[in-house]
């Protein structure tokens, strides 16, 4: 389950717009020293999935941020 957040800027929690369940894709190459990340498609655009700790209460867990 990935939460779609609107208005998240690193300080403000933003609001949960939708909760989606999608299988995404990985990108990045560890052999080249890059960090491997996970991204999912939401409404035709790819967004990087990030994880928020439990102190963020209801928005904690896997999230993506939209404008």
Oligomer: single chain
Unreliable spans are none
Helix amount: under 10%
Along the chain, the helix and strand elements come as EEEEEEE
Percentage of residues in DSSP E strands: over 45%
> How many domains comprise the coordinates?
1
Q: Tell me about the biggest sheet? A: 4 strands, mixed
Which secondary-structure class do the elements indicate?
A: mainly beta
Shape label: globular
Query: Which radius of gyration do the C-alpha atoms yield?
Result: 13 Å
Count of helical segments?
A: 0
What key attributes describe this structure?
single chain, 67 residues, mainly beta, 4-stranded mixed sheet, 3-stranded antiparallel sheet
Task: Write structural notes for this entry.
It is a single chain. With 67 residues, the protein is mostly beta strands. It has one domain. Helices cover 0% and strands 49% of the residues. It has no helices and 7 strands. It has strands at 2-6, 15-20, 25-27, 37-42, 45-48, 50-52, 61-66. Strands 2-1-7-6 form a 4-stranded mixed sheet, with no helix packed on it. A 3-stranded antiparallel sheet has the order 3-4-5, with no helix packed on it. A hairpin with an 8-residue loop joins strand 6 (50-52) and strand 7 (61-66). The protein is globular. The two termini are 20 Å apart.
Brief description of this entry?
With 67 residues, the protein is mainly beta.
Topology:
Blueprint: E1 2-6, E2 15-20, E3 25-27, E4 37-42, E5 45-48, E6 50-52, E7 61-66
Parallel strand pairs: 1-7
Antiparallel strand pairs: 1-2, 3-4, 4-5, 6-7
